[in-house]
Structures are given as structure tokens and as C-alpha cells.
């Protein structure tokens, strides 16, 4: 296909999305809910077809010499299909993110103002191998009255096609345009490049995948990007932490699932409490299968720790490895986090309420926790029903992004012939 | 100056801004208020010096063959200086946009969530000839706990320097870093280009000026942009409008100040009401000094109207000219606005509550008004104290942008040893 033809096809997706979005803008919640529930039903009804399509995707990817982790992300089974369908229903069950008046006031002269939530417009979601991202993204877009253009990895294209057919069926059953959710029909990598330039037709671009995808999108896109970069998250065990709680929280924060973005990557430990806390922490981490790398002060207390390198503090392991750094109280912990954190998720474990409040107020991150595991950094755990990712930027939305964060607002102003002096 | 040196200087501004922003993050409201009030005081105290600097700016710009409108925007007098100082005080008087908990909830297991407003981080404001933008932007940044990097037009540089000296004095008096608000010290145009690439050091870029500036920034910037493009605003006089009210509102919407972005550019008029409304509207507009251009149906009713061209509907006149288009009811009015509006400000004049509510709900614009002038599109009129502009995008903030819109949020989560299952 020529470059011009690809560009034209992508542009046409944008035009269509912009056009149908007007219908979504005013579609009542019951219809959006109906579309989601019918989409879930259709997904279950098509599960045999979906498993077949997915088997072809997986076998082709296997020939393509992909890692087993990649193949695992790509693979669907009955449970994963049920999870997608259940996810659509959970999204349907949540309150309507649209139409809510979140501010209202009136002037002395009677002019009355309301700020009301409206859809963002057109979302584009670029993702990699996981087919379920298509269902989540489509579901959140429908819920929030946005049109969506989805572009998945080539390897998952047959699976994604069936998923989007099911969702299109749900939209039609609810009397909404099936083009509300569109897939980019061309596999050529250049299509993504064109999508990133569609400033008139796409309002927000959401990359969902590994760091290289996000970095490419962030550096090339002319459309605003809601991106997730790294989660170099810290758990800070303060001198006044309860030792048993610290062990439980730290092991969970690192080892529950070391590969997710909310996992803790570095353990900060007060010098005052090193003797009391570190041996137990290291033992518990090792028991859970975690390698522990310590700085000089940590290694002086617990023998046999690997030696942490300076680069460790800026490493997102996403693996069963943790760095331990000993700090000299809250100030030094805050300094370390300011220098090495990525604004994702940070936690303190302490019984000292003053230290806890200071940490919660001074640490600049999307999510700050006291006496809780960083692995709670998740839209589902926050009660958002589903998430399209965790935003590590500061613009528009921060932290887990659910349907309510895919909205904008407008002002409705009511007068009785008011003119401005 | 070499390119590398300019880049390095701009980068250094970014590093400094990022560093001082941590202090602002936690500066109590009283201190930020104190800085603003002391800044206002210093501005008044330095007014002779400022007038002198401004006189040099103006005389150099005059040699540069600038238009009189340009020179007027550049020129300061005692009233304008007082308006700047009063603006800083008005910003100080508004409630604190930071620290407010705007959502909170707890899970059944006791894990408690709060969403709290925090500063965005580092703002960069690129503006043109008006020196007062420096005071507004600096004031809003200080209020919202953001560090700011300002880059004004070369022509206003001496005036801006004095204004920022006054504000730096206010910051120091309040014990806040004077580098909280920095000006780009190099005049080279390349400096703006470097500023637009500072993704690690600048969180939001705000262009404040004419369309070519905004377009340049939007097309080149790698930093997220909060921009104002065009305001092609409509006032729709519905068949059931009160004729006297329609005249008053339309004349105000167009002619109070034809050059502001909230001015109405096109009048839509119901076919049903053309005979009743149009002659009076044209007479009132002409009396106010406005040229009226009509489509065929309008010209059939009122003789001597200029002939509107197709391009008129996409023209932002910013002048004493209005286009009149006759439409066949609410649907056609909504169609016209969807096709030609720029998402800025749209108004309906009608006594019919159903038509009004339909217009308010279906028109997709930052501001929609019923029986009120589009010229209310202004942060001051909305009660925001001051504004840094009106955002016509849909991301982050929409409509008038005041201090509260220059914030982000973070989640504070409090547990008692909670781990994720």
C-alpha cells in the first residue's frame, strides 16, 4: 500500500470518529450501558471463534520467534475471555461519568454557571500484544461517550478483530453507531505515524505497552498523549515502623507481582531502624524468592547482600530484585525519592503519624500510601471498574485512568438577557 | 551567542525551575498570598521606573515600524500598572487552589483514599507584546504553587524585566525562592524552540498571543500545550426569542469589544423569526457601527446587506463585522455550529426552555450560554480572579484558565498494613 493511501485511510478513520462522536455526546447512559452489556454477551457467544482466531495469532507469533512472556500476553483462554466480558459489565455497572455538574455558582446579577462533565471526544489507543486491552479500551470509551480508534500489535490482529466485532454488535444493539470503536485496518507500521499527526481528529492518544512504545508515541505525537512511563517506586520503612507490618507490606509491594508498574523497586530504610528491621526484611524477601542488593550501610548490617550500584536507584527491575538504601531520616528519604522517583507510586511504613503525614504531603507522585502496599496502584483496586493505564504525567489525569478521567467539561451559563458592561 | 549556549541557558532555567518547584509545592497559602501582595506593592513602588523602561520599549518598537494596535498593547500607563497590581491582589484574595480534597472514599477493608489538588509543576508561558501578561502569568503561577518560565516578546523586554523584578521582590519578602518566576534571558528566537523541547523540565506550555504564535507552539512543542486557537462564536436567535433582548444581547456580543476572542462572529437566525427579528437586529448593529453581511435568505428580508461569502462562516473577524445566516430551526443551527464553531463560546437567545436546554446540552463548546452575551467568556467574569487565557482544546482544562486550572492532583491512600491479595 502506498504511503498516501495509508495516510488517507487513517484520516478517514479520524473523520468517521469525529462524525459519530456527536451521537455519543448525547447518548443516554442506559444506551451506553446496554451497548456494553450486549458487547459482553456477544463476546461470550463468540468465544469459540475468538479462541480459534487467537490460536492462529499465537501460532504465527511463535514462528516469529517471540518470547514466552510475549506469547503469554497474547494467549486467550476461556477465563481470560470471561474476564473481558465481566470487565465490560463492571464498566457498565459504574455510575455515569457524563452529565455530572461538578461545580455551580451564580453571580449577584443572577447569571448562573454550571460546569458539567462531557466526553473528551476521540481517543486513539495504541497497544501491543494483549488482546484484552482492546476490550478494556473500547469499554471505557463507550462508557465515557468517546469515539475510539484502536491500533493493536500486528500479532494480535485476528483476536482483536473478533473482540471488536462483538463490541460493534453491542453498539448496534443499543442503537449506537458501530463506528464508535474502530480498528486501524492497515498493519503497516506507518499507520501509527499518521495517527500521531491527526490533531484535528483525535483529542487524546493513549499508548498502552512497554517503554519503547510509550517513548516513541511521546516523542512523535502531535496529539496530546496520556502516557505511562516508568514506575520506579519506593517503600520507605521509617524507624518507627512496626517490624511485622513492614515485612508484610514490603514483601507484597515487591513480590506479589514483581512485573507490574506498581511494584516497589527500591526499599529505603531509616538508619535508626536498620538493626531492628533489615535482617527480618531481607529474610522475608529472600524467602519469597527476591534477590536483595544493598548499599554499604545495609551490607554492614546483613552479610551476603549483593552490592547495589549507583544505577540501581534509577532501574525499574520489574523482576524479583530489590535495592536497599539506608537513609538518615525522612528528609533523606524525601530527597532520594525526589531524585530517583518517577512520580508513580510511593509508600511509607510507620507508626509515627507526623512522619506519615509529612511523607503524604511532600512526596510528589500520583499515588502516595501510608502503611499499604504499592501494588494497590491499580484502577480496579481504586474502584474505577477498569483502567486504561496509569498516567505518570501531570496533565489532565494522573494515576489510574478510568472512564471518569476520559472526560472533559463545559460551562453552561444561564441568563435573562445579561450583557457584559 | 552560539546555539549550544542558548540551549544550555534554557536548560538551566528548566533545571532551576524544577528545583525551586519543590519549595513551592509545600509553601503554605499565606506565604504565597504574602508574595503576591508584596509583589503588588513593589510594582506600585517601581511605577516610575517601569514607565521609563516602557517608554524605551515603545520608542524602539515605533522605530521598528509596528502597528498602532501593537504599540497600544505594549504601552503602559499609571492605570495599567495599577490594574496589574490590583490583579495580583485579586489573585491573592481568592481561595487556595491547592490542598483541597476533591474526592474521598474508603473500601470495605478500611483502605482510605483521598484525591488532593497539587501544583502542576513548571509552567512556561510564551507571550507577545503585552507586558501585563507577565504579571498575570507570574501571579497565577505563584498562587497555584507552580514555578514559571516566562518568555515575552522582544519589544516588551525592558518592561517585563521591571515587572518580574517587583514580583521577585515579593517572593523574597515571603521567604520563597525568587527563581520561582524566571524570564528567558536570551532574546534569540531560538530560545523558544529550546523551551518547547524541555519535556523533562516543563510540564505545561501556555502560548498567549495571536494565532501564528499559538500555531507555532502547537506544531513544534514536545511539551503539552494549553492553547487558545480561534473563537468563531455564534449567537443563535431562536424563533421564540424576545426581540428586545435579542437586540441587546447580539449587539453586546458583537460590538462591546469586537476584538476579543469571546466576540460573536456569526449570527444564526431562525427562518420562522426572520421577519420579526432581522430588521431590528440589523438596525441596532448598524447603529453600533457594525457591518452586516447576510446570506440569500437574510438579504431577501433586509435590503442592502452585504453578501456573505461561504468563507465568512469560518472567519474570525475580530472586528465590527458580522455574518448573518438564516437556519431552519434548532437542528440546522446545531449543524452549522458543529461544522463551523471552534469549541469556544456559543449562545442561544430564546424564551423556549426546551430549545434552550437542548442547545446547552448538545452544543460542544467550552462555554454555552442561554440569554446572555458571548462576551462573558472571560475568567474575570467567571469569578476566577484572573485568567491566563481561554483554552479551546479539550485536554486538562477548557474555557477560562485560572489558578485552579493550573493544578493537578495526587491520591493519598491510608492503610494499616494493607497488602494486595
**Biggest protein-protein interface?**
A-B, 64 and 64 residues
Within CATH, the superfamily of the largest domain in chain A carries the name Aldehyde Dehydrogenase, Chain A, domain 1
The coarse silhouette of chain A is: globular
Task: Supply the number of helical segments of chain A.
Answer: 15
Work out the strand percent of chain A.
15-25%
Spatial ordering of strands, largest sheet of chain A: 10-9-11-8-7-12-13
What is the CA-CA span between the terminal residues of chain A? 59 Å
Question: How would you characterize this protein structure?
Answer:
- 2 copies of one chain form a homodimer.
- Chain A has 2 domains: 3-229, 3-Layer(aba) Sandwich (Aldehyde Dehydrogenase, Chain A, domain 1), CATH 3.40.605; 233-378, 3-Layer(aba) Sandwich (Aldehyde Dehydrogenase, Chain A, domain 2), CATH 3.40.309.
- The first copy, chain A, contains 15 helices and 16 strands.
- Chain A has helices spanning 3-25, 29-45, 47-63, 68-74, 78-93, 132-143, 157-173, 190-195, 211-220, 243-255, 274-287, 296-301, 330-340, 353-362, 379-382, and strands spanning 101-106, 112-119, 122-127, 147-151, 181-183, 204-208, 233-237, 264-270, 291-294, 306-307, 321-327, 345-349, 367-372, 390-391, 399-400, 407-418.
- Chain A has a 7-stranded parallel beta sheet with strand order 10-9-11-8-7-12-13, with helices on both faces. A 4-stranded parallel beta sheet of chain A has the order 5-4-3-6.
- In chain A, α10 (243-255) links the parallel β7 and β8.
- In chain A, α10 (243-255) packs parallel to α11.
- The first copy, chain A, is globular and about 65 Å long.
- Chains A and B meet through α10, α14, β13 and β16 of A and α10, α14, β13 and β16 of B.
Amino acid at each position: 500500500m502506498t504511503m498516501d493511501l495509508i495516510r488517507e485511510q487513517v484520516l478517514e478513520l479520524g473523520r468517521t470518529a469525529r462524525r459519530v462522536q456527536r451521537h455519543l455526546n448525547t447518548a443516554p447512559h442506559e444506551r451506553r450501558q446496554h451497548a456494553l452489556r450486549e458487547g459482553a454477551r456477544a463476546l461470550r457467544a463468540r468465544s469459540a471463534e475468538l479462541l480459534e482466531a487467537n490460536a492462529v495469532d499465537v501460532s504465527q507469533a511463535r514462528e516469529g520467534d517471540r518470547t514466552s512472556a510475549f506469547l503469554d500476553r497474547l494467549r486467550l483462554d476461556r477465563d481470560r475471555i470471561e474476564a473481558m466480558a465481566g470487565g465490560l459489565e463492571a464498566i457498565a455497572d459504574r455510575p455515569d461519568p457524563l452529565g455530572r455538574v461538578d461545580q455551580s455558582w451564580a453571580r449577584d446579577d443572577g447569571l448562573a454557571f454550571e460546569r458539567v462533565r462531557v466526553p473528551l471526544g476521540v481517543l486513539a489507543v495504541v497497544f501491543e500484544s494483549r488482546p484484552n486491552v482492546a476490550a478494556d479500551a473500547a469499554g471505557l470509551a463507550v462508557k465515557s461517550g468517546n469515539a475510539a480508534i484502536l491500533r493493536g500489535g500486528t500479532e494480535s490482529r485476528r483476536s482483536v478483530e473478533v473482540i471488536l466485532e462483538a463490541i460493534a454488535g453491542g453498539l448496534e444493539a443499543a442503537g449506537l453507531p458501530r463506528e464508535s470503536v474502530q480498528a486501524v485496518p492497515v498493519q503497516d507500521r506507518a499507520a501509527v505515524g499518521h495517527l500521531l499527526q491527526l490533531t484535528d481528529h483525535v483529542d487524546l492518544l493513549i499508548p498502552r505497552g512497554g517503554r519503547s512504545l510509550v517513548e516513541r508515541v511521546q516523542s512523535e505525537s502531535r496529539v496530546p498523549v496520556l502516557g505511562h512511563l516508568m514506575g520506579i517506586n519506593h517503600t520507605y520503612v521509617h524507624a518507627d515502623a512496626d517490624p511485622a507490618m513492614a515485612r508484610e507490606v514490603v514483601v507484597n509491594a515487591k513480590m506479589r507481582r514483581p512485573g507490574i508498574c506498581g511494584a516497589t523497586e527500591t526499599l529505603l530504610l531509616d538508619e535508626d531502624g536498620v538493626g531492628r528491621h533489615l535482617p527480618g526484611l531481607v529474610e522475608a524477601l529472600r524467602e519469597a524468592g527476591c534477590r536483595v542488593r544493598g548499599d554499604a550501610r545495609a551490607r554492614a548490617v546483613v552479610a551476603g547482600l549483593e552490592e547495589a550500584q549507583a544505577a540501581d536507584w534509577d532501574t525499574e527491575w520489574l523482576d524479583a530484585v530489590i535495592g536497599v538504601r539506608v537513609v538518615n531520616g525522612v528528609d533523606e528519604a524525601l530527597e532520594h525519592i525526589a531524585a530517583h522517583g518517577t512520580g508513580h507510586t510511593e509508600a511509607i511504613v510507620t507508626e509515627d503519624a507526623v512522619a506519615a503525614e509529612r511523607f503524604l504531603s511532600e512526596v510528589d507522585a500520583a499515588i502516595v500510601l501510608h502503611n499499604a502496599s504499592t501494588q494497590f496502584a491499580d484502577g480496579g483496586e481504586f474502584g474505577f471498574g477498569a483502567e486504561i493505564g496509569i498516567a505518570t504525567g501531570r496533565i489532565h489525569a494522573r494515576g489510574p485512568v478510568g472512564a471518569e478521567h476520559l472526560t472533559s467539561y463545559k460551562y453552561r451559563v444561564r441568563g435573562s438577557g445579561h450583557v457584559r458592561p
